[in-house]
Amino acid sequence: MSASIIGRVTSGKGKSYDVKWDKGNGDVYVSYAGWTHVGEASSAGDAMDIAEAWLHDK
User: Is the full-model pTM beyond 0.85?
Assistant: First the structure.
């Protein structure tokens, strides 16, 4: 299964980025410098939280 865009998050500097999550293996990606792998999540909500935390200082 491929990753699907599940939403957008805003970085600590105010820029918005798309978030992709692969439901099959849990991979989370953010549209930062291409698609950057930022972690793994068991749900879409967790994926959004992981992405938001990763982008906090970006």
Answer: yes
The separation between CA 16 and the C-alpha centre of its own chain, rounded to angstroms, equals 11
Q: What is the pLDDT of residue 1?
A: 62
The residue ranges of every structural domain in the chain are: 4-55
Among 5, 8, 2, 7, which residue's Cα sits nearest to residue 22? 2
- Residue 50 buriedness (CB in 10 A; 0-12 / 13-18 / 19+): buried
Sequence letter at residue 54: W
For residue 35, the 8-state DSSP code is: S
Terminal Cα distance for the chain, rounded: 29
Task: Encode pLDDT of 24-42 as tens digits.
Answer: 999 999 999 999 999 999 9
